[in-house]
Specification:
The chain has about 210 residues and is of the alpha+beta class. Helices cover about 30% and strands about 30% of the residues. It comes from Phrynocephalus forsythii.
Length: about 210
């Protein structure tokens, strides 16, 4: 298992480490593309980006160089990694191919916050009701401390524009008068249709004329 149980990020927040393993990376360097194995990679589910520690690379005798263009990671005369600068970070020219080895299976994350994100930032109460009303099978939705956190994307998504200005009520039609007019018009139409139908005497006279 992982010898490290927690890490502290730049803003001082403690994040739990849930696993450790090796990952295969496809990297672009002086030789073109090359597959490299990153060893003892920590699995931290709450991190939103994959990070590589420059100090860890230096401890392993790599040379890490930064400038305004980007960065390079080399060992001796061989450059293994290159990166470009953007948004205040240095992004390496590589991609994860697949995990080669995992020390142990990661824990299932069934927190309400995780389901909140999967359901497109749905409100917490309906999500928790799935568990309460036994509408889900095979999993357990757990409420944690982050359930009451306010996400910026949630606030923006639920924001609405200002309501329409209220006009003078005198300018609006009286719905009761409209309904009364419609009923009167309908009754008049029914009376007209009834008058168009032939009477019983008229029908008998037409039948007698046809028989003679």
């Amino acid at each position: 298992s992982s010898p490290m149980t927690n890490i502290v990020c730049a803003i001082g927040k403690v994040l739990e480490v849930k696993g450790e393993g090796n990952f295969l990376l496809r990297c672009k360097n002086d030789k073109g593309f090359e597959n490299l194995t990153a060893e003892k990679v920590l699995y931290v589910p709450r991190l939103t980006a994959n990070l590589i520690s420059a100090s860890t690379l230096v401890k392993k005798n790599f040379k890490v160089t930064f400038d305004k263009v980007g960065c390079t990671v080399s060992l001796g005369n061989v450059t293994y990694l290159t990166g470009v600068q953007g948004n205040g970070l240095f992004e390496l020219n590589c991609e994860k191919l697949h995990g080669v080895f995992m020390a142990h299976k990661r824990k299932e994350d069934n927190s309400a916050v995780m389901w909140h994100r999967r359901f497109g930032h749905r409100q917490m109460d309906p999500i928790l009701k799935l568990q309460k009303n036994q509408l889900v099978i095979g999993t357990e939705i757990k409420r944690n401390a982050d359930c009451d956190s306010i996400y910026e994307i949630c606030v923006k998504g639920k924001a609405t524009r200002p309501s329409f200005p209220k006009n003078n009520m005198a300018d609006k039609p009286d719905m009761a008068e409209i309904e009364k007019f419609d009923k009167s018009k309908l009754k008049k139409t029914e009376t007209q249709e009834k008058n168009l139908l032939p009477s019983k005497e008229t029908i008998e006279q037409e039948n007698q004329a046809g028989e003679s």
